[in-house]
Design brief:
Layout (H helix, E strand, L loop, with lengths): L8 E4 L6 H5 L7 E6 L7 E2 L2 E2 H15 L6 E6 L10 E5 L5 H9 L9 H11 L7 E7 L9 H11 L3 E8 L6 H13 L4 E4 L2 H12 L29 E10 L10 E6 L6 E8 L2 E6 L1 E9 L5 E8 L3 E8 L6 E3 L3 E3 L3 E7 L7 E6 L9 E4 L6 E4 L5 E9 L4 E11 L4 E3 L3 E3 L3 E7 L7 E6 L7 E6 L6 E4 L5 E9 L4 E11 L4 E3 L3 E3 L3 E7 L7 E6 L7 E6 L6 E4 L5 E9 L4 E11 L3
Parallel strand pairs: 2-5, 7-8, 8-9, 10-16, 18-24, 26-32, 34-40
Antiparallel strand pairs: 1-2, 1-7, 3-4, 5-6, 10-13, 11-12, 11-14, 14-15, 17-19, 19-22, 20-21, 20-23, 23-24, 25-27, 27-30, 28-29, 28-31, 31-32, 33-35, 35-38, 36-37, 36-39, 39-40
Helix pairs in contact: 2-3, 4-5, 5-6
């Protein structure tokens, strides 16, 4: 359990639900509740935060006190972290009890514990120098703002005409000797009583006993014995120290928390508080060498962790995971077609990059086929794998890839078909009828027989319609027309097709003068963007010196190059720039 810093529930009162209380309406009956809202109030007793226990006890107290009892409320640590001046009178003495209950119910513990200053402010509000006043202090730890509670109590006792401070140590462990000493000396200095309460019942019982304790009006105060002047303490021996680096992670193996942490380090032997800090993340602190106890609490949700750091040299480090149970649910259909998208309804943390995934049931938690981030909405769509089988839909926390919940889903096969002729001219465009799921980016392709799903020569998306146009390869030979599912390029259907050779012819003069134009007659497939060109002998299919598209008709005119020499006239199929026919032509110099 996180070591509490200081709970401090201060109740200035003279009784609970007792008949005698209703008859005492003097100033001594004025009540001030000084409520602790420091970070340590998130510490727990039997799984219940101390802040919750304190709220319940105070609510019962407000209900039980007689209506004539005048009340007020002072709180500290409820507005700012690390501020020892964060003390505020929320409801003055004689204020409305409903306002007190509402103020306490809305407090969110965040700050430090200026316990001593809070007692002094309560006493001053009760005008303790003029009237008798009683303060009840309930604390789960020590003063954290460099004040001396014992000395302050002695001074208040000498200044007032009848101030009594009763104290209750709430939820103190065996190691809390320092806190017990402070609470007892405050009670002793003012003629009050000291109690120890380990749970809510004992706290109520202690307050009931304090309520019937006699006031200073009904007892004879005995003078305090004279105190001998203490001998000066010897100088302590130097203790070797080292640097301790502390960090906390959000869940086991999750990211390091950078803010909103309250750290407490206690001496491993004495339990003495060596260091406390508020509103921080990673921490580096100098400590005496040895094994010390470390605890941390997150202010936003009260999550706690504890461990020990072994500082045997100059440096040591400790990482504590703040583990909070994260819950999630999923609602998915029992079956779905391969490659389809299903609607997923979910509940869960919905933090940052959390995601819903689908993956093989026998694979590791982090392995998935597809996923969608929870930030995309609720419900959301999740793409199913392309292959049939049994899968799991999972809610995955992005912090450490923990699976918070999972649901099984059976993915079923989907069918497809294509209709093509057995043969087609190379480079021609076919009309292909097809059936299939028509998922986004699915396509009909033509590819070499036995090649992989995405090794197509040409393709057309199924979104282009049915039937659709598909360009055949320029090279003659055996091929396959396929229906391909875009996800993972899975082939759902295929039909063989053979592309047959196409031919072309050229008719033109054997020679011509450079820079002049000649007529070229041609025959050929006249596919889109085919062309007749003139190029150097032996050059590649697209290394033309000049050209004209066959779409201009036959014959067409070409301009001969300026440089004399031997060239080629060519019919070039635009797809892959395949040369279907060629004829030499000699270019002579102009006279």
């Amino acid at each position: 359990m996180l070591r509490p810093i200081a709970m401090g529930l201060l109740l200035g009162l003279t009784g609970l639900s007792l008949p005698a209380l209703a008859q005492d309406t003097s100033a001594a009956g004025d009540t001030i509740l000084v409520f602790d809202a420091s970070g340590s109030m998130w510490g727990q007793i039997d799984g219940v935060p101390k802040i919750t226990i304190a709220r319940d006890v105070v609510k019962e107290l407000l209900d039980d006190l007689p209506p004539e009892r005048r009340l007020g409320l002072v709180a500290y640590g409820h507005r700012r972290k690390g501020d020892c001046k964060d003390i505020q009178t929320l409801v003055p003495v004689g204020g409305d009890r409903a306002a007190i209950a509402k103020a306490i119910a809305g407090m969110n513990p965040v700050g430090k514990t200026p316990m001593t200053a809070a007692v002094q402010q309560a006493a001053e509000a009760l005008k303790f120098t003029e009237n008798e006043a009683t303060v009840i202090l309930v604390s789960d730890g020590q003063e954290t703002c460099n004040a001396d509670p014992c000395a302050a109590a002695e001074k208040l006792a000498t200044m007032g005409i009848g101030l009594t401070v009763h104290t209750v140590g709430f939820g103190l462990g065996e190691e809390e000797a320092g806190a017990k000493g402070e609470l007892k000396c405050m009670a002793d200095a003012t003629g009050g009583r000291f109690f120890v309460a380990d749970d809510a019942k004992e706290l109520k019982d202690a307050l009931a006993q304090i309520s019937v304790a006699p006031s200073k009006k009904s007892k004879t105060a005995e003078p305090a014995p004279a105190k001998a002047e203490p001998a000066p303490a010897p100088e302590p021996a130097a203790i070797p120290t080292g640097k301790a680096s502390l960090e906390a992670t959000d869940q086991q193996g999750g990211p390091v928390i950078r803010q909103d942490l309250v750290w407490t380090v206690r001496h491993g032997a004495t339990g003495e508080v060596l260091h406390e800090s508020d509103a921080t993340g990673k921490l580096e602190v100098e400590l005496p060498r040895g094994v010390h106890d470390v605890s941390v609490v997150r202010g936003s949700d009260g999550a706690t962790a504890e461990g020990e750091i072994k500082l045997t040299g100059d440096r040591a480090s400790l990482s504590l995971p703040l583990v909070v149970e994260l819950k999630a649910t999923l609602k998915v259909p029992a079956t779905a077609a391969a490659g389809s998208k299903v609607r997923v309804i979910w509940t869960g943390p919905g933090e940052g990059n959390d995601y819903i995934s689908v993956g093989p049931a026998d694979a590791g938690n982090s392995k998935h086929a597809n996923y969608t981030r929870t930030k995309d909405g609720n419900p959301l769509q999740l793409l199913m794998p392309p292959t049939a089988g049994t899968y799991e839909v999972r809610y995955v926390s992005a912090k450490n890839h923990d699976v918070l919940t999972r649901e099984s889903i059976d993915v079923t096969e989907v069918g497809a078909s294509v209709e093509v002729p057995a043969k087609a001219p190379a480079g021609s465009t076919l009309r292909v009828a097809w059936t299939g799921p028509d998922y986004a980016n699915d396509y009909i392709s033509v590819a070499k027989v036995g090649s992989a799903g995405r090794s197509e020569v040409n393709y057309t998306r199924t979104s282009a319609g049915n039937p659709l146009k598909l360009l055949m390869p320029a090279e003659p030979g055996p091929y396959e027309v396929r229906y391909v599912q875009s996800q993972s390029h899975k082939i759902l259907a295929s039909q063989p097709i053979e592309t047959t050779k196409v031919s072309a012819t050229l008719d033109a003069p054997d020679s011509g003068v450079s820079g002049t134009r000649i007529k070229v007659s041609w025959t050929g497939p006249d596919y889109a963007n085919d062309y007749v060109s003139i190029a150097k002998v032996g050059s590649a299919g697209r290394s033309e010196v000049g050209y004209q598209r066959t779409s201009r008709g036959s014959p067409l005119e070409l301009t001969l190059p300026d440089d004399p020499g031997t060239y080629e006239l060519r019919y070039v199929q635009n797809q892959t720039h395949r040369i279907l026919a060629s004829k030499p032509v000699t270019v002579t110099a102009a006279p």
